[in-house]
């Protein structure tokens, strides 16, 4: 019988193998097909998020290639306007909602955060699993629509009244707005799980000011998600009401307001950019520290910058709406706010330079992608400064200049750090190193191809090519630049194929990685690779920001958590003192069944409002199953006694 | 199918070829676009310098400290003195960033005021109404019979301020002529106003910039900037009702126009055709292009458009008109007579 209160002991004292076996038995995830659907461990769900999101990156990329093929010559009759409008809408929606956020926020967050916290699982693991299935449901709805010629065709932000009932008959716009509901429910669920994990599941000793920057960024993003997502759910919800039951929220003929939609959408839409970029910045901060072989320079300024970005990100949305003809005072305000957000981002850049300058740079594979990020994101950030200026924005808004800008920002801010992160944590996830040689090919092909394609688009924009045109006249002289842009796609595709080959080969024959192949400072490198189902043999304690670098070999660990049930340690949100123990609910089929029921209700509501009351019945039934009381009585709370620091 | 494609591409290559400077924000023809171009280049060079400095800082830092090793190197001990120096450098860089941003902000606001502030009290007013997928152009006048209505081709006098009042009949469009000034959305349900003034006579190209549905790509317009005398002459011509057809073919063409679907959507002032769903055709022969800058205004292009507009602009609101060869020729002859 384990003791109820944690005592702190040296890791070496305990009989590891016996304890490991007991923990493995307790924390085991079920096998088999049914077991796959019951799995609630964060490492499994995190990898699923990443793999699924990567599949949608590839699908979105196929759509992008089709766009570039269509625009390769003027008056091209390869793709008609109807299909083209579906393709670019699907491309944008897929990349933002099915790739970027699920990969950068959910995927990396769910996998890394509990490991960095020193937790045995994520908080609310069933909600986390539910969020994954809901995300898959939304993805299937969107792509199912596309494959049945019901793909949305109103642009990824679906402005009214074009997406309203009068101008978009059929169900294409409904598919879009329900996909939004799915993916936002998923992001909200994960945001709650991550925020709770970060605030309550940190290892004893990991006070707020010792949290890795990654955890700070995930916390800020989670809060941003919790505030931003409701705005877009209101926007898409009201749109759905207009379309389904004949309300007039956005119908100007009946006193509705078309700009209301834009405000709601961009109040979500711009923080969304930071929801995508901040995880990238978090990866870069982590890697710069590791590969400069010194603690990050300017921990406090970076954390303040991240928090500031989270705040300012909510006060710049109107710069997407300058062309609607706003009063000059409000334009000036939003110009100032948009310029202001450069300051925290710049601060992070300067701290990264300083870290590298005062460190000992090892330009290994993941770090190469960070340098790619510095170059690409810098260009995107600087063209963003131009866009913050109202007069310049009024010229280049909705042209290929903006298309170039946001691909530099989003590919620079998400895709490059994503590859950096994948190469970095690949050994942790798979136990094997990814091939550095193939990684070089991957990087250079992708980097060159990316710049050929997207740098060219700046010039197309300056020469007046609007975005979202399915073709253009020969008299506009846009062909040669479009051909050049399309050539870059070949290189990017080749790079991605090399990456896939690299993953495929390295998983099988890659060099065995060991616990900490990069010599990084984070707690996620303290256990074997890939992590065991219980993550940590003993819940660790930490005495500094870089536990693997600073903690002495006799750093105490938490003992006293039961090993016959799934006990987790809950600590104080500020100073991470142990507070009480919680029981992980363990694997369950109910999250999957609930996700099925919710999906059925959402999909049904594309066709009839009755799907909501009728669909609520199975949703309620599955939630009752989910919330049915568990067997174990709670262990007594901790008394909050002090422990050696 | 191939024949029809060949026909369409034949029509399209007949389109007048404006030089690339006619749709380009970096070739300003109006003070508005001129101020913006100046701001663009000023900002560009500042940011270019920032780019060079930042990349140099990263390259220098990387090159100075790079070590090639296969395994992880030991972690560097704390260096208080080095960190303090780096702190000053980072602080200075942040300070320079703030100053640079402030300069850009001030110049941006000043430029915005110069672009938006109207000084003249006697401007020409033009009401632009967006439709899927063409532009209705009205020159409002307190006397209804002095109001000019046309489509897609906007005549303006050189050297006189022009105030544009925006509106939309259906979805959001965006009015954008890059040589003249920045874009402005045409919102259904609310109107707004902006102004420009063109200094150089010429024909400038513009295009819808806000995605508006199937034929967003084919929603162009042109701005014809001409001397005040030419502009007034044009306006007087536009005020007249449609010319009476003079040839027998054109007379028959009018009959065809008035007895087929044409009059369901179009207006020809002086005839029974008075619907406002489509462009006003009273002086259609005077325009350079048809179908919102999609086709040149030639007999062949016009015939192709009247018979099967869906082939040229799939999804356009205009329905195909299966006219007999004679009827078609007559209608084209009539439309070509409407100067």
Q: For the largest beta sheet of chain A, what order do the strands appear in spatially?
A: 1-3-2
Order of helices and strands of chain B: HHHEEEEEEEEEEHHHEEHHH
Distance between the termini of chain B: 35 Å
- Biggest β-sheet: strands ordered side by side in the sheet of chain B: 3-2-1-5-8
Oligomer: heterodimer
Radius of gyration of chain A: 25 Å
CATH architecture of the largest domain in chain A: Up-down Bundle
Q: Name the biggest interface.
A: A-B, 97 and 101 residues
Number of beta strands of chain B: 12
Low-confidence stretches of chain A: 1-15, 639-645
Q: Give the structural class of chain B.
A: alpha+beta
| Unreliable residue runs of chain B | none
Helix-strand makeup class of chain A: mainly alpha
Name of the CATH superfamily of the largest domain in chain B? Cupredoxins -  blue copper proteins
Number of domains of chain A: 2
Q: Any idea how many domains of chain B?
A: 2
Structure description:
By secondary structure, chain A is mainly alpha-helical. Chain A has two domains: 526 residues, Cytochrome c oxidase-like, subunit I domain (Cytochrome C Oxidase, Chain A, Up-down Bundle); 41 residues. Chain A has 19 helices and five strands. In chain A, the strands form two sheets. A three-stranded antiparallel beta sheet of chain A has the order 1-3-2, with no helix packed on it. In chain A, strands 4-5 form a two-stranded antiparallel sheet. In chain A, 62% of the residues are buried. With 339 residues, chain B is an alpha+beta fold. Chain B folds into two domains: 191 residues, Cupredoxins -  blue copper proteins (Immunoglobulin-like, Sandwich); 89 residues, Cupredoxins -  blue copper proteins (Immunoglobulin-like, Sandwich), CATH 2.60.40.420. Helices cover 40% and strands 17% of the residues of chain B. Chain B is built from nine helices and twelve strands. Classes of the chains: A mainly alpha (645), B alpha+beta (339). At the A-B interface, helix 4, helix 8, helix 10, helix 11 and helix 12 of A face helix 1, helix 2 and helix 3 of B.
